[in-house]
Input
Amino acid sequence: MTAAPGDAILRAVDQSALAVAMRGELWLYPAVEVLHICGFVILVGAAIMFDLRLFGFSRGLPVRDLARHLLPWSCAALLVIVPTGLMMFSAHAADFVDNRAFVLKLTLLMFAATNAAAFHAGVFRSAASWDRDVAAPLGARLHAAASLVLWIAIISCGRLIAYV
Ligand code: HEM
Output
């Protein structure tokens, strides 16, 4: 039986110097996981705080000012989350691709990214008209609701990876 092309890539990742170090060094994997957690605490924390503002909490706080504050931190957090996630992935690549919680997590991540992009390219462009002291339009609140549900599901999947 011929091996699937993906198998060769997974074997190469598994045998890479990085993967060997991630499996071999006692403190490396936990240290990388702590960085991963610090990263998504900032990203998901920022997303949820923004969603709560869109739901109408702290209506006096201008939405665009809040976005201007939170977006750079969210992007910086991604620069920590993605490399640390890939480092952990490399240690047990073949197991992770068969892990339903891991696959679902990455799928939900794509939905969360699409939801955020659609918000910024769509209803957020009219934010000047609902910046403060008025309710955000229904479209914005629906994006906020989707974001809240998706990020909680992503974190749940991340935690469940070790149990599935
Ligand atoms: C931006 C969104 C992300 C969030 C919110 C997130 C969340 C999580 C959570 C909650 C955990 C469990 C941590 C723990 O309980 O110790 C985790 C672990 C993990 N994540 Fe992520 N993650 C994100 C992105 C990524 C990416 C892009 C990858 C890359 C492939 C990735 C790969 C992993 C791996 C391999 C684990 C380790 C599982 C284990 O050893 O148990 N994550 N993540």
User: Anything to note?
Assistant: Residues 7-160 form one domain. The chain has seven helices and no strands.
